[in-house]
Amino acid sequence: MATIRDLSDEQIAVIKARIQRGEKYSEIASDYRINQGRIADLKYGRIRPEVKPAMQVNDNNDLA
Prior knowledge:
By secondary structure, the chain is an all-alpha fold. It has helices at about 10-20, 25-30, 35-45.
């Protein structure tokens, strides 16, 4: 399992955009192999608050 520190700022931005789109924590966590609790931490700004959500994410959950 990866840790949140293994993810790039770009990946964090995509995760935050997916959270805003209303995707389930479990789906996002599974894609990045991280704990669902870290997804909640990102959502509420407890970790990596300096990274803003990606403006455009395509259907493959990559930056457009």
